[in-house]
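Possible regression after last week's pipeline update?

I re-ran a chain I had predicted before the update to compare outputs. Posting the input and the new output here so someone can diff against the archived version. Not blocking, just want to make sure nothing changed silently.
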Amino acid sequence: MKAALKIVLTIMVMLLTVSIQNSIESKTIRANEIERATDNACSETMRVVMNDKRFAHIEDMSETEKEEKNRLMADMVRTCIIRQITSDSKVDVNVIEADCEKGLLDVQVIAEFNYINGRIGKIEKRSTVILEGMP
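New output (post-update):
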């Protein structure tokens, strides 16, 4: 009887250990994925803005055209981030500021996911890119 109890307790401890390890690893993997996707998307968006003829001479554009370029920049970064995230997380991308005239892009990414025990985890990443010498 004592041997059976020891075996059951050992199995329960092992399952608990595996569950804890899985939760920690799951959050780490998702955090790395969010960070990588956000950094890559911001860099890629700013590279496109720097090299795209549509953003040249932005200081000569009307306010409506500038707002349209800022929306285009925000949409680019949103699409790029969402395309790079492959996990089963629910991703919310908030573009806090996108100003192609100043060379500023400020993005916040929030990812929600489920742990193995059913609890909801949340990861936030905020990235700001400022470019000097905009066209």
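Follow-up from reviewer: compared with the archived run. The CA atoms of residues 69 and 109 lie 21 Å apart. Marking as no regression found.
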